[in-house]
Design brief:
Blueprint (H helix, E strand, L loop, with lengths): L18 H8 L11 E3 L2 E3 L2 H9 L10 H16 L2 H6 L6 E5 L4 H21 L11 H15 L7 H12 L1 H12 L5 H8 L2 E6 L3
Antiparallel strand pairs: 1-2, 3-4
Length: 208
């Protein structure tokens, strides 16, 4: 929404150390007790893919204008939404740390290989510089957290085009703002910190 200039007001809700208490707190605004959640008047949309489709009803540029590119972008976004389980498990989300994994399990390597294949396919097929063509769309937003994961865990896709795309995402104004906000966060979630340290051989903490 920020990258496409769609107006909204952000309400930041930090996670607590007690998952049950956090979910109970989040259920005041999100039926699933999870984020993200979009509230538009008396309408509530509580899933990222549903949010994108809701926005696209008003802002057509959320998805590519070309039908073929749009179908590809929707498929790739849905794959990210429901897949890449090993990447999520072994590379827990963090922006302000640089981590060297002790090992890279087969599942993680398979996810990285699929990521390289998917990104490479989109960039070549639609000509870049974004996954489905010249403009940033929802499919790029779905892979924005992956760009941070690759940076934080110092992972390369061993493909110059894919690595360059990751750097383009990281250089976007909205991504830079997200990164700076992450570095400035004053709180730490103990369970999340423990989860990261369990897989890391070395950690550089850049958070303020």
């Amino acid at each position: 929404m920020r990258e496409l200039g769609i107006p909204f007001q952000e309400q930041l809700q930090p996670f607590g150390d007690d998952p049950a208490a956090t979910r109970k707190q989040f259920r005041f605004f999100s039926p699933s007790g999870k984020v993200p959640c979009l509230q538009d008047g008396d309408i509530t949309i509580w899933d990222s893919l549903a949010i994108v489709e809701y926005l696209a009803e008003t802002y057509p540029r959320v998805w590519p204008s070309d039908r073929g590119a749009r179908a590809w972008a929707r498929s790739a976004a849905a794959e990210m939404h429901s897949g890449f389980t090993a990447l999520r498990q072994h590379c827990s989300m963090t922006c302000g740390q640089r981590i060297t994994l002790r090992e890279q399990p087969a599942g993680l390597l398979a996810d990285l290989a699929r990521l390289q294949e998917l990104w490479g396919n989109g960039l070549v097929r639609f000509g870049g510089p974004f996954l489905a063509g010249q403009n940033f769309t929802a499919v790029d937003a779905f892979f924005a957290p992956v760009a941070f994961r690759l940076q934080s865990y110092q992972l390369s896709l061993n493909d110059s085009g894919c690595d360059a795309y990751r750097e383009r995402l990281l250089a976007l104004p909205s991504m830079r703002d997200w990164y700076e906000a992450a570095l400035a966060e004053p709180w730490r979630e103990a369970a999340h910190e423990k989860e990261i340290s369990a897989v890391a051989a070395a950690v550089q903490d850049l958070r303020r």
